[in-house]
Amino acid sequence: MNRTTALLVIDVQTGIVEGTSDQQPVYQKESLLQTIQALIDRARRRSIPVLYVQDVDVKAAGEEAFAIHPALQPAPDEPVILKKATDSFHGTDLHDQLQALGIDHLVIVGCKTEYCVDSACRKATTLGYDVTLVHDGHSTTGNAALRAEQIIAHHNTCLHGLSNLDPFIIVRPAKEDVFVPIHDSYR
């Protein structure tokens, strides 16, 4: 089956990646930025659509913490979808934009693993998208119960193979050709 892929870059805002006065930076931020930038570059070279999601609750628009990280700036023709919920699809036109592009496979990267990345992966499958979550392309901060690396490892494990009806999530490292879905080989 021929698939049409898009790269979805979630909440890579300066205040999340770099942290703020009251919040730590995400785990291994330098490595995360390099991985996501390399994937964005690969997608652009192959004319794969890149869509960004930006959380309006991070900080006020116009503040540095609200802005998409300078290392990961969208190109002028790449959509930036503003969201209020952890779910990138809720109350936004993300699904409509993806449908207009004929997308049926999403490669997902971004922040934070247990909130917005997890929500987007799960919701995407219920909307009919196969999802490739990039193993080393998402990050978070630790909390009172778990260190950041434990949260990331847990989500890489529990989301791999998660299905809702037919579409499902596969977790793959960025070094693989994540833009070519392998879901059909498991069906």
Automatic annotation (TrEMBL):
Organism lineage: Bacteria, Bacillati, Bacillota, Bacilli, Bacillales
Top-level taxon of the source organism: Bacteria
Keyword annotations from UniProtKB, A to Z: Hydrolase
Family membership: Belongs to the isochorismatase family.
Ranges that cross the membrane: none
Record has Transport as a keyword: no
InterPro entries associated with the record: Isochorismatase-like_dom (IPR000868), Isochorismatase-like_hydrls (IPR050272), Isochorismatase-like_sf (IPR036380)
Species this protein is from: Brevibacillus choshinensis
Gene3D superfamilies: Isochorismatase-like
Pfam families: Isochorismatase
GO molecular function, one term: hydrolase activity
Signal peptide: none
UniProt cross-references to PANTHER family, sorted A to Z: ISOCHORISMATASE, PEROXYUREIDOACRYLATE/UREIDOACRYLATE AMIDOHYDROLASE-RELATED
Domain Isochorismatase-like, first and last residues per copy: 5-142
The protein's name in its UniProt record: Cysteine hydrolase
UniProt keyword Hydrolase, yes or no: yes
